[in-house]
Amino acid sequence: MLDHRFLSQIPSSDILSIFCQALRPGSLYDSPHHEPLLFDHLCLRHPVQHRAPPCVAFGHPFYYRTMFGLDNLIKHYREECVLLALEPDAQLTPANPRFQFIWESGKYDLRGGLRENTHIYLEVRRRGAWGAAAAAASPCLPASLPP
Questions:
Q1: What does the pLDDT look like over 25-60, one tens digit per residue?
Q2: 78 and 70 in contact (C-beta within 8 Å)?
């Protein structure tokens, strides 16, 4: 919580700017490409760029964790990392299924998904960022945006 003493030290012209930054919408809706990447059924591997093997097929143990969007993959990846850290030392081997998932999905799926997400984000920012819907909804944004 902001203390009034802190706010009194900020020039009043900057307070609106700080407030507007806090209200800025997330990048999820800046581009129509973010939502499918995060939530749709798709392959996150990029075989040409990363020399990755093809995406896992239906029936593979990693299929449901890697083929349903970056959001799903990150949740499973984090969970497996935590669970691997709780394993006894004797279980910490390359043959451990948790280790195999972390290694395989991190090297190919997570890397590809995060690169794609970053590419989309930077492309949106390069083109002028915020869409017309965000501009109309926010008093902080100018009424007209550059193309």
A1: 566 667 788 889 999 999 999 877 667 889 999 999
A2: no
